[in-house]
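ARCHIVE CARD
CATEGORY: sequence design from structure
SOURCE FIELD: tokenized fold
FIELD CONTENT:
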């Protein structure tokens, strides 16, 4: 048994196809198939159910693949420890971020990261929260920016900032004439929300629950930008995180943004990594860079007449 064979098994477990797994491992299909067979012989158990059009792992194969991922992740941590010892601020970092935050946060923090860590290779991965958590646990990611709370006992968290929400309504909506509103004034509203799997959906549903509001039936968006366009088209109202109404996102003249009276609904964001990671000290430094957003990005938009201009021209608190 060797690390190469474990990589072959993990690739096969993920791709469920000998040809694609071989391509991902940069070997020929016969080579990968032969090595998997040798691994089965060494372990004395079938790992794979071979069928003409697809591959399934046996229960033993699934269990061993999970363990193989952990072994490979630990080996990578050994390499990372050696690299970080030689040069703590060099090498690569695989950083995850979820889709309703990444496009709005990264333009502000990536230049700062490059300035602070000029020798660092930053590899960004944008996925939903569950995918990011799986990637962290399996060693495919080094860290991720996620919304709190988390309930993973293997995870280390470093709080970054708290980001308020605004209510986005179409011009002409009954609420559009207000300068601000209380949560209770959402009680008769049905909000446009994202599809399942987005943490922003869960956060918005939590706000709806507090306010007694509901979800608009028959529509679930795949992205925050789709929600914005639906509001601009007069279909309904939604919650937008404040960073999503900041440049470089273009403004929309068809949307009005409303403050909530104190305290506004918010989401709390943190940098997350494995407790076992060899990069803990470095990642705490990285968290400090992520936390040092310009003050203008951490302020709510004005509540005067300028607040009638829609979307992204406003300031925000993150």
């Amino acid at each position: 048994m060797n690390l190469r064979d474990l990589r072959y098994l993990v690739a096969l477990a993920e791709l469920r196809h000998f040809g694609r797994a071989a391509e991902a491992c940069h070997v020929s299909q016969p080579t990968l198939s032969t090595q998997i067979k040798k691994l089965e012989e060494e372990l004395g158990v079938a790992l794979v159910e071979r069928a003409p059009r697809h591959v399934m792992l046996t229960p033993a194969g699934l269990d061993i693949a999970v363990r193989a991922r952990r072994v490979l992740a630990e080996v990578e941590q050994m390499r990372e420890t050696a690299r970080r010892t030689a040069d703590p601020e060099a090498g690569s970092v695989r950083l995850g971020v979820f889709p309703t935050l990444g496009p709005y946060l990264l333009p502000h923090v990536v230049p700062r990261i490059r300035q602070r860590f000029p020798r660092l290779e930053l590899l960004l991965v944008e996925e939903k929260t569950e995918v990011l958590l799986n990637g962290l646990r399996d060693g495919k990611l080094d860290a991720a920016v996620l919304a709190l709370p988390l309930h993973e006992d293997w995870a280390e968290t470093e709080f970054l900032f708290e980001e308020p929400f605004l209510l986005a309504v179409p011009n002409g909506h009954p609420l559009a004439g207000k300068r601000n509103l209380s949560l209770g004034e959402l009680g008769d509203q049905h909000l446009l929300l994202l599809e399942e799997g987005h943490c922003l959906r869960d956060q918005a549903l939590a706000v709806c629950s507090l306010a007694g509001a509901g979800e608009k039936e028959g529509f679930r968006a795949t992205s925050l930008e789709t929600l914005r366009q639906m509001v601009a088209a007069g279909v309904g109202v939604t919650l937008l995180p404040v960073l999503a109404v900041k440049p470089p996102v273009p403004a929309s003249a068809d949307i009005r943004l409303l403050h909530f009276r104190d305290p506004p609904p918010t989401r709390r964001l943190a940098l997350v990594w494995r407790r076992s990671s060899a990069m803990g000290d470095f990642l705490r430094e990285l968290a400090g860079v992520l936390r040092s957003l310009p003050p203008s990005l951490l302020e709510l938009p004005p509540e005067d007449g300028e607040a009638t201009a829609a979307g992204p021209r406003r300031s925000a608190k993150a």
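CARD ANNOTATION: Residues 304-318 have pLDDT under 50 and may be disordered. The radius of gyration is 23 Å.
SHELF: design records, drawer C
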